[in-house]
Specification:
Structural class: alpha+beta
Oligomer: single chain
Helix content: 25-40%
Order of helices and strands: EHHHEHHEHHEEEE
Largest sheet: 3 strands, antiparallel
Length: 218
């Protein structure tokens, strides 16, 4: 049997008054979570007394349990604050925002199969958006052409890169009169360069087992 000590009884009356005031002032949605604050404080103090093999709850034990329970009350009030407030209705995304998401996820360009199943719209509706550009691409000579969607602001980033002329060795005139300028891109191999000399590794000093600094760590 664990009982309250004489020094802890004044604090116990304060704890019970604290719990009663909380239950009367807080809304019902919050008070229901903390209606047994005083009982939980007494149980926590009894656990502290049992951990010290004592049958008496001292004032220090009850004060420590009250501190823990008071913190849990504060967290409960903070978490349940506004639980009875009306929920704010989220604004639905526009069709342009829905289309932008898969395009950005696929690196700035996405095919119709990567866009249409996730936006809930037809190809004609997506093509009619002012900020979306639709192009038809064909890979090879066979197969169905693919419709690729890009964002109009980022369309310039996806233009095909220009191919630089391949460097060559001389300038010549073709039969059509066009001038082809070609530059040498490779350096000639250097002459009279001595072959590298292979050096044998220099053997290091051999340590005796007693001189091994790592032996003491094993």
């Amino acid at each position: 049997m664990i009982t309250l000590g004489e020094d802890a009884r004044p604090l116990w009356r304060i704890v019970r008054r604290y719990a009663r005031i909380l239950g009367e002032t807080l809304p019902e949605q919050q008070a229901v979570f903390i209606e047994r604050t005083a009982e939980q404080t007494l149980r926590g103090a009894a656990c502290l007394a049992a951990s010290e093999c004592s049958e008496t709850i001292t004032e220090n034990m009850l004060s420590a349990a009250c501190t823990l329970v008071r913190r849990s009350v504060q967290d409960t009030v903070r978490i349940t604050k506004g639980a009875d407030a009306p929920k704010v209705k989220r604004q639905p995304l526009s069709l342009t925002d829905k289309v932008r998401a898969p395009i950005e996820m696929h690196g700035g360009r996405a095919t119709s199969s990567q866009v249409l199943p996730y936006v809930g719209a037809s190809a004609s509706e997506v093509k009619a958006l002012p900020d979306i550009v639709a192009t038809v691409e064909r890979s090879g000579t066979t197969g169905r052409p693919a419709t690729v969607f890009t964002v109009r602001d980022d369309h310039s980033r996806h233009t095909p890169p220009t191919v630089e002329p391949r460097p060559a060795e001389r300038t010549e005139m073709e039969s059509s009169g066009a001038k082809v300028v070609q530059l040498h891109a490779y350096r000639p191999e250097p002459k009279n360069v001595p072959a590298p000399v292979k050096r044998s590794p220099v053997p290091g000093p051999v340590l005796a087992p007693a001189d091994n600094p790592f032996r003491a760590l094993l």
